[in-house]
Fold each of these.
Amino acid sequence: MVSTLVPAIGFGIVTASILAVAGVGFTLQFGVTNILNLAYGDIMTAAAFVAYLVTSAGLSVWLALAAGAAFGSVFSVLLNRFVYTPFVRRGTRLFGMIIVTIAVSLIIQNSLLAIFGANFFSLQMPRPASVTTAGMVFTTAQLGIIGIAIAAMLAIHLLLRYTKLGKAMRATATDPELARSCGIATDRVIDLAWAISGALCGLAGVILVINVTSFTDTTGAQFLIPIVAVAVLGGIGQPYGAMLAALVIGIASELAAAIFSPEYKDVVAFVILVAVLIARPQGILSEVATGKEVAA
Amino acid sequence: MSVAWQFYISTVLVYLGVDVIACWGLNLQFGVAGLINFAFIIFQAAGAYTAAVLTLGPAIPAAKGGFQQYVGGAHWPFPLPILAAGVVGGLLALLVGSFGIRRLRSDYEAMVMLVVSLIATSVVTNQVGLVNGPNGLALVPKPLASIVSLSPIGYQWLFVGITAGVCVCVYWLVHIVTSSPLGRTLRAVRDNEQAAAALGKNVTGLRMIAFVLGGVIAGISGAILVEFISAWSPGSWLYPETFVYFTAVIVGGLGNNLGVMVGALLVPVVFLEATRFIPQFGPPGFIDALQWIVVGVLALVFLWFWPRGVIPERRRRFPPAAEGEEAQPLMPAKAGR
C-alpha cells in the first residue's frame, strides 16, 4: 500500500505545482478585474501549441516555456482590451460577461482545432532521466516543473507584498472606486493584472503538456475542473489561498488515482468543490451580497 | 415531393421540435429566472439515457452476445419512457441545484455548472457499466414501431406528429409558468434579487423551481431525440452543445417563448443544417470547427448589437394609478365610501 502511496504523493506534488501556477493566475486576474474568464483553460491550450511549434522547430524547452508565457500574457491583455473591456463599457454585466467568456473559449478552442486538426500532440524534448528521492520517483522534467512553480509563486509573493504595483493590485481588488480616488491608475493596474495572469496561464499550459504524454485542443478546457476547484477552495481572488488549495487538491487527486483509479482524479477535485459550496459558501456570495460589479 | 426530400424534411422537423422544447426549458431557467445553467445539456442527456434504457429492455450479458451494458433496463410501453425521462431530468436538477443554486454570484454559478457538465461527461465515459461508456447506447427500438404498420416514410411523419404533440404540451406548460404570478415573481428575482427578497420572496426556492422545471423539459427533449435517432453517446452531449442552445435563446430573445422558438429555428436548425449543403473542404473536422467558431461569433455579435434578441421580451406595463386617485389604502377608512 505504502509502496504505491508514496510515489502518488510525488505525482501529487507535480500536479500541485501545475495547479498552483494555473490557479494563482486564474484567481489573481479575477480578484483584480472581477471578470470570471472561462476562456482561461483554452488560453493554456493555445500557449501549449505555441510551445509545440517552438520545440518542433528544434529549439529548447526553456525557450518554449518563455514563448508560452509571453504568448499567454500578450494574448490575455489583447483579449481584455479588445473584447472584454468593450463589452463591459457597453454595459454588459456579470450575467452577460460569462456568456462572452465562454463564447471566446469556444472560438479559441475551435480555432486551434481548425489550425492543428484533431490529433494528439506532444512536445519534442529530450527523454528526461529519472531521479529517486525519499521513495518518490521524479523525472528531471518534473523536477523542473516543481522548480518553475516554486519560482513563480515566490515571484508573485514578492510582487504582491513588496512592490507598489502589488499594493495597487490589492487595492484595486478590494475596491476599484476607492483605489481610483486615491490616484491609482486602475486601468494600468488591470492591464498589468491581465499580463501577469496571462503569463502564469501560458506557463501553466506549457508545464501541463510537459507533464502529460500527449495533448489535444481540449486539454486546457478539461483542466478547468481542478483550476475552478482550487480557486473556490482557496477563496476566489485569493492568491495565497489558491497556492494552499493547489497543494491539497493536487495531492488528494493523485492519491485517489493511486487508491481507486486514474479516472477519479477530477472527481476528487469536483467533490472538494461541492463540499466547499455546501459547507462554506461565504467567500462566494451573490453579487448583491458583496455589492461588486465588473471593473474595467 | 420525392421520398428522399420527405425523409430529410421530416428529420429536420423532429430536430427542430427537440431544439424548440430544449430552448423553452433553457429559457425558463436562463431567460425567465436568470440562471446561467452551463450544464443544461446533461439534463437532456439524462433524459435520453433514461428513455433509451427503459425502451431497450434488460441488458444482455456479453457472454450471451450482448454488446452494450447498462443499469436498470426495462421494456416500458411508449409514452412512459418519455415521462420517466422528464422525472429523471427533474430529479437530477434537484440534486445539482442542491449545491449549485445557493445564492451564488451568477458567474460563479455558471462556472460551477460548467464544471458539473465536464465532470458528468468524464464520469459517464469512464464508468462503462453505467450506460456503456464512450460507445453509448445504440439500437434503441422506435416507439410504436411494432404496433403500427407504416412505411418508413409514414413512420417518419408519425414521429413528426408525436414531436409536435409534445411541443404543444411543453409550450402549454411554459406559457402557464411564464404568464402566471410565479413567472412574474421569477422575473422579479431575475431583475432585482434584493428587492424580491425584501418583499418576502424565497429567492433560492423560486430559482430552484425554475431550475427543476427546466430540467424536466430538458429530459423530455432528450427522450424524444433518442427515441428518434435510436442511439446516444457522450459525444452528443459535450458542454459546447449547451452553448448552441444559449446562442439560440439569446438570438431569439431572452424571456420570450415565441422569440426562443425563432431562435431554435435559426441557430441549431437553419444555421447548422446549412453547412450540409456547402461542399466539403479542408481536413476532416475542419468544417465542424468553423461551425463552432461561427456560433461563438454569432453569440458575441448578438450580445453586442441586439442583446435582447430578434423578438425581445415584451415590456410588461401595469396601468398607472388614475389622476386624483391616490394609492388606495389597504383597508378603507369608512365602509360606506
Amino acid sequence: MSLKHTLWGAAAAVAMLPLAANAERGSDGDVKLIYWQAPSIMNPYLSGGTKDLEAASLVIEPLARYDENGSLVAWLAESVPTVANGGVAEDLKSITWKLKPGLLWADGTPVTSADVKFTWEYCTADGGGCAQAEKFNDITDVETPDDLTVVVRFGVAKPFPYGPFVAYENPIIQAAQFADCLGAKAPECTEANFNPIGTGPFTVTDFRPNDVITLAANPNYRDPAKPAFATVTFKGGGDATAAGRSVLETGEFDYAWNLQLAPDVLAGMAAAGKGQTVSGFGTLVERIMVNLTDPSADLGDERATLAHPHPFLSDINVRQALSMAIDRELLVEIGYGVAGKVTCNILPAPAIYASTANDACMTQDIGAANAKLDAAGWTVGGDGVRTKDGMRLSMLYQTSTNAVRQDFQALIKQWWGEIGVETELRNIDASVFFGSDPGSPDTYQKLWADVEMYANNFSGSDPEAYMANWHSGQIPSPDTQWQGNNMPRFVNAEYDAMVAEMSVTADIDERARLAKSMNDLLMQEFVMIPLVYRGRVSAHSNSLGGVKLNTWDSELWNAADWFRQ
Amino acid sequence: MTDTTQVSAPQDDGSGHRAPRNQWWDVWDQFKTHKGALIGAAFFLFVVLAVFIGPLIWALEPTYIDIRSRNQGPSLSHPFGTDQLGRDTFARMLKGGQTSVAVGLTAMALSLLLGTTIGVLAGYFKRLDGPLMRFTDLFLALPILPLLLVIILLFRDPLRSAFGPETGIFILIVFVIGITSWMQTARIVRGDVLALKEREFVLAARSIGTPNRRMITRHILPNVMSPIMVSATLGIATAIITESALSFLGLGFPSDFPTWGRLLFDATDYLQQYPERVIWPGLAISLTVLSVNYIGDGLRDALDPRIRGR
Amino acid sequence: MLTYTIRRLLIAFPTLLFIGLIIFLLLELAPGDPMSQVPLTVPPEVKEKMREALGLGEPTHVRFYKWLVQFFIIEPQVFLDNTIGSTFAEGKQRVISWQTRSPVMDIVVQRIPQTLWVVGMSYVVGVLIALPIGIISAYRQYSVFDQVGTFVSMVGFSVPPFFSGVLIIVIFSVHLGWFPSIYDTTLVVNSWETFVTQLKQMIMPVMVLALQTTAQISRFMRASMLDNLNQDYVRTARAKGLTESVVVMTHVLRNSMIPVVTVIALGVPGIFGGAIITEQVFKVNGVGQLLITSIYANDIPMVQTITFIFAVLIVAFNLIADVLYGVLDPRIRYD
C-alpha cells in the first residue's frame, strides 16, 4: 500500500516537471496546513464532517460556490443561472448549467455533463447512505443535451434552486472513477474515496486517514499558472491550541483552521509575530434552547414530550427574564473576542434576513428581569430561589464539553442566581451530546434537561430549511426515535403557516420578510435565547499570501490563488 | 475482605498514643526515626487540615465570579490570583483539594482492596488462579471510555436520586476509578504470593497446621506490603488526574466545581500568559503524592520486623 | 511448565472469544452515534439512511458473527494474499471502518511504525533507566541519589502528560526552537539528515512518556530490592565470601524481579495501545490517536478490532510473565 503510494507520488512529481519549468505553477514549494480534526475520507458524499469536506475541496469542485461575502460565484460553470439570464425556468422547476469549455480531470480526460449527471445518480443510489442526499431532494431528472449543458429538473417549484452541485458539500466527481461504486458498493472503493480524481488545484499523492494527506499540484488545472504551490501537506489531529501554536508561535505550519480559543490565549500567541489571525462571519449562533416540556424523570415514556408542559418554563415571563439577565457583551468578550458579536436573533445573516426588532436584549437588565418575575407571582424564598405554588425555579443546564461553553455556563449560572433561579450545570462529551443514539439519555435532541446550549447554522445562504426547524412537525419524540430539530418543542400554528408559505414563495424580498417575521416570532416567544453570533477564526503565517477566509464555503476555496510572499 | 483492613487499621492506632505497649508502639518508634516519613506525614496532615478547615476560614466562594477582577496576579485579597472569570484561585485550590484528596484516598483504597484481595486469592488458592486472572485480563482489555459511558448511562441517575447530586457523583467517580485501576495491583500481588507460598517459613507454618486465613494475614500479607505501598502512592496520583479527565466526559463533577486536576488542565492553556496559575495545582498534586510516598516508605520500614530489630 | 503453557494457550482461545463478545456488547450498549460529527445542518432522515448504509440496522448477534468471520477468516486470508500472492480473500468483505470506509487493518498497519518508534522507544528507554535507578536507590537507601531519584520520579509521575507535554513544547519548541512541536509521520528515514530529523521529533514525546514509565518501574524495583536486601540468604551469600556485585546483581536482583516483570509485562500491550494524551499533544497520530478518534466517532468496527488486538496482547504477555516467574523462581509451580 505505502510502496504503491510512494511510486504514485514519484510519478506525479515527474509528470509535473516540464510544466513547472515554463510556468509559475509549483514555483512556491510546499504549503503546510494543520486541521486539529483529522480528515478520514476525501469523499464528501460518504462523510458529512466539515474536516472531510474541506480537505476534499482542494481536489474536487462544484459548479458554483459561495465567495467570502456569501454570494454565489460560478466555479466549474460559466455563469450562475438565474431567472433573469434565462438559466432558471420561469416556473422555477428547472435550472440549466453550462460547464466551462475545455475543463480536464486531473487524469487528462475531459469533464462532461455526464459527470454531473453521474454525481446525482451516485448520491441518490439506493443503500449508499449519501450524506448530501438532502441537496438532491425533489430532483426528478438530470438531462444532458450536450457535453457542456446540464438541465436539472425538479418535481416542485424551487424558489432557491442552488442546492445540487453548489458549494463544497456537493462537488462533481468523475463518472469513470466511481462507476462501480454506486449504492451499497460505495465503501468498497477505498482507492477512489481516498484519492478522488478531481478538477481542483491539487491531487492526492498519499492519504493517511485521520493523520496526514500529501497533495501535489494538479498538472491539468485549468489555469496554467496556478496553483503556486507544488505540494500541500495537510496534517490533522491534536487540539486547537497546539494548531494555533504551530502557526503563530513556532512557524512550523502555514495555515491553522478554526481556532476556537479564548481571545486572550489567541492574542498571546499572535503576539509572537510569526503569523496573523483572520476571522469571518457566517450564520453560526450560539444559543440556549428552552425546553417547553417537562423533562422530569418521573414521567417515564412521556418524559420531555408534548404530553406534559414544563412546570415553569411554559411561563413566558420566566423565559423572558432568563434572557434579560444575560450580559451578552461580556460573553462575547470572554469567549470569542473578535470572532463574536452580540446578537438577539437566531437568524443573524445574510443582511437582508437580519431583523432588528429584538435588539432590546443587547443590554443586560437584572432589575427588570427581577421585576418581571415579581409581577408574574414568583416570590423569592428563604434560600434566594423563587417559588410559586410550591414550584421552585431550579433548572438543569446542559451543553457539550468545551472550555468556552463551560465558562459561559458558570457566568450564566451566576446571573440567573441573581434573579432567583437556581441552576445545576452538566457538560456532556460532544460525541454523545451531538450523537443521535435514541438509547442515550444525553443527546441534544432528547433534551432531558431544562435548558441546553449549543451552536447551529445553516449551509449556504438560504434560510428556508433552517427556519423550518421549528415547525411543529419537527419535534423530537419517542415516535420519531427522538429525531427532529425542534428542540424547544415549539408548537405555533402561525409559525407553521409561515414555514409553508416560504416554501412556495420565490420573490426574494417576500422571502426575507417571512424569514424575519419567523425569527421575530421565535425571539419574542423566548423559546430560544440567542447568545453570540459566532465567527470563525483561522490563522496563517506571515509568508502565506492570498488567504480569503470564507465561512460560507470551504476555507480552502481559493487555495489555487495562495502563494508564498 | 476483612483480612486486608486488619492490616491497615493499626496505622491509626500507631499515631493515636492510646494503645498499650504492644508491637504497634515499636512500629511507631521505628516510624518516628524515619525523617522523610515524619515530614511527609506532617505535610499530609497539613494539606488535609487546610482543604477541610481552610474553606471555613477563607470565606470567598470558589464559584463566585467577580468578572471585573479577572486574570489578576497574587495580591492580598487574592493570594493566589484569580482565573479567567475572576474566581479566587486560593478558594478554588482549597475547595478543589477537598474533592481531590477525598477522591484520591478513597479511590486508591478501593482499588487496593480489590487488587490485593483478588491478587492474594489468586496467588494463594490454585483453583481460583485461572478464573480470577482471566477476569483480570478481561478488565485490562476493556476499552475504558465506552465502559465509562455505559456506567454513566446505567448508574448516574439512580445514584443521583439516591444520594443527591454531589454525593452520588462522588460515589460514582470513586467506583469508576476503583474498578478500572485494580488490575495492576492484583497481578503484582499474585506474582509475589506465588513466590512467597513456596518459601521455607510458609512451608513451616503450613506444616504446623496454620489455617489458611491466618496464613494469609500473618505470613503472606505482611510480606507483600511493599509493592502494595508503591501501588498506593502511584494510585493516589492516578486517581487525582483521572478524576479531572472524567469531568470532561460529563461523568465527573459539574464543570464549575473545582478540583486540582481540573484547575491544572484549565490553566495549561494559559501557561504562557499566566504561568503562576499552573504552579499551584501542579505543586499541590506533586507534594501530596510525594508526602504519601514518604509515609509509605516509613510505614514499610516500620512494619518490617528485620529493620525494626536493628 | 510446558504442559502448563500449552494448557494456558488452549484456554486463551475461549477466553479471547469471551472478551471479544464482552467488548462488542459494551460498545453496543455505550451511547454514541457514528453520525455525531456530521454537521447539524444535515437532516435526521439523511443521517438515518447513512446509518443503514453502515449496517447498523442489523441485529447485534448478526453483526458480531460477521465481525468474527471477517476478523478471523478473511483478514488472515488477506495477509496470506499479500505475503505469498494468493487470492483467497478476493471479493470478500473485510472489516471496514465506518469513518474512512476502508479496511481497518490497513490503517492499523499504517499506524504501527510511529507507535513503535515513539511509544515503544520510550518504553525501552524508560525501562532501561528505571532498572538501574531502582537498584541503586535500594542499595544506597536514603543516599542523595535515592532522595533525588524519589523526588524526580514522584513529581514526574504526578504531573500529567497533558501538562508536561505542553510545558516542554513551550520551552523547547516555542522559546528555544530546538525541536518541532508537531510530529511528521510521513518522514522516511533514509539518510543521516532524516535520521537526525527523526531523532529531533521523537525526543520530546519519548521524554514525556519515559518519565512516566521510569517513575513507575523504578519505584517497584526499589521496593522489591529493599525487601530482599535484608533477607537471610543475602547474609549467607555475603558470609560465604561472594563479591558484593554477585550478591546484588545475581541473587538479590533475580529474586526482586517478580513484581517488576509483572509491571513490565503489563505495560508492553500498552505500547500497541499507544499513549493517547501524549500522541494528541505531539500529533504523533499512532494507534492511540486512532483508537480515541474512533471512539469519539463511534466507529465500532475500528474500536472493536483495535481493542481485540490489544486483548490478545494482554493475554499473551500475562502468560509470558507467568512463565518468567517460573524461570526467576524455580520453586513456583503451576501444576
